[in-house]
Design goal:
- InterPro entries: ATPase_put.
- This is ATPase F0F1.
- Keywords: Membrane, Transmembrane, Transmembrane helix.
- It holds the Pfam family ATPase_gene1.
- It contains 2 helices and no strands.
- With 76 residues, the chain is an all-alpha fold.
- The chain has a domain of 43 residues.
- Helix 1 packs antiparallel against helix 2.
- The longest helix has 32 residues.
- The two termini are 31 Å apart.
Length: 76
């Protein structure tokens, strides 16, 4: 019989929490950097439509999605 005063062990390891938290931070940072670089490049060109910001954002999202798929398949 289990002791009710003893805390239950979680099924996930703390390492997984840190890994996914790090991955989330990396995603935010890379997307933010891509948007910032595209914004600055659009300012430099003077175009009305933010072409570089859209392109860099979509490229960053594709790389992030690929990285998530690669990381989750490797450790399952």
């Amino acid at each position: 019989m289990e002791n009710p005063l003893q805390p239950k062990k979680s099924s996930r390891k703390p390492n997984q929490l840190y890994r996914y938290a790090g991955l989330a931070f990396q995603m935010m940072a890379s997307l933010g950097l891509a948007v910032f670089a595209g914004y600055k490049l659009d300012q430099r060109t003077g175009w009305r439509i933010p072409v570089f910001m859209i392109i860099f954002s979509l490229l960053a999202l594709a790389v992030i999605l690929w990285q998530i798929i690669k990381d989750t398949r490797r450790n399952d």
